[in-house]
Amino acid sequence: MKQLLVFVLFAAMFCWLMFSPIYKHVLVIRQALLQQEANYLLEIGASGRFGYIDGGMLAQSRARLASNGFQVANLEYEVTSTSGASADDASTPVPRGVGIRLVIRYPYEHLLDIDRLIGIQPPSEEARFSAGGMKMSEYVP
Q: Within the chain, which residues score under 70 in pLDDT?
């Protein structure tokens, strides 16, 4: 009986040791892709040509992230400015010297559920990881 118990516990621990790094690797890659996309959108949106991040840019971003395996419906974008003005309206670009903030959020999607095997509670269904940044606008009217 003890041997059976030891085998079951060892099997659970072995499964976790085998597969946990894979899931964590996927999470790290997704985080890096989100941060890369946020940096790209900020670089383009805060440039002297635009001064905003509008819906068209976000749609292109969603398409790029979808090509990397993200589910478009789960992506959340938040675009703000340091002055409180709208930073997502092409008709009123953010002037030079005002910061544009961007945050992209995405759910964990059960990636860390295997941690239950060793007693670690995975993030809740509502939990999301995010990437973002801020860049000063270079737009001059």
A: 20
Q: What is the pTM of this model?
A: 0.81
Sign (positive or negative) of CA dihedral 70, 73, 74, 75: positive
**What is the tens place of the pLDDT at every residue in 5-20?**
788 878 877 777 777 6
Spatial separation of the C-alpha atoms in residues 123 and 125, rounded to whole Å: 7
Residue 133: name the closest of 100, 88, 85 by CA.
100
pLDDT at residue number 64: 96
**Alpha-carbon span 32 to 52, nearest angstrom:** 23
CA dihedral angle for residue 81, residue 82, residue 83, residue 89, rounded to 10 degrees: -10
The confidence score (pLDDT) of residue 124 equals 87
- Burial string for 21-39 (b: 16+ CB within 10 Å, else e) reads eebeeeeeebeebbeebbe
Q: Would you tell me the crossing angle of helices 55-66 and 2-45 to the nearest 10 degrees?
A: 140
